[in-house]
Amino acid sequence: MEKKRIIFTGLIFGLVCQVAFGQTDFDSKLKSLYKNTVPLIRSDVLAASIAENEKIVILDTRSYEEFEVSHLPNALFLDYDKFKPNEVEGIDRNTRIIVYCSVGYRSERIGEKLIKMGFADVHNLYGGIFDWVNNKNTVVSQAGLKTDSVHTYNKDWSRWLTRGVKVY
Question: Are residues 26 and 103 in the same domain?
């Protein structure tokens, strides 16, 4: 009986370490990508703001192909590669804006541009849509229906998505 308990405890410890180190690896990757030029917002904070019906504009800065697979509910599409300042002309400069992409690199670049344009309350979603989904938050399809699919940009980046169906 004691031997089974030791084996069981070892297995549990191993699983906990694997999950913890996986997050540590992801956090390290994000640290290497971010310039910290745009304030970050965590998934849980954004989810709470959405649940409270706070006035927020959420901008998905990935490619349209990625956006079509899934995106955060009520997110607006803003193509990173084709961004033009006139695309955000209708947004009040004092409105809270959340930008995101797969992991936060592209959205940080767009966030920098928005700040230079005079937007006062811009935040980058920490870990992007990957962290959002990894933390069990909802994404929707192009039709607005809840989905488990997430475009992971390519096979290499898909390793950072630990939940859902990987599409690339």
Answer: no
Sequence-ordered list of residues with C-beta below 8 angstroms from that of 27, at least 6 positions apart, any chain: none
What value does the mean pLDDT take over residues 10-28? Answer: 58
CATH number of the domain where residue 62 is located: 3.40.250.10
Q: Which amino acid is at 31?
A: K
Query: Do the beta carbons of residue 104 and residue 130 sit within 8 Å?
Result: no
The pTM of the full predicted model, rounded to 2 decimals, is 0.86
CB atoms within 10 A of CB 84: 9
Asked whether 157 and 129 are in contact (CB, 8 A), the reply is no
**Tokens 């475009």 map to which residue?**
151
8 and 90 assigned to the same domain:
no
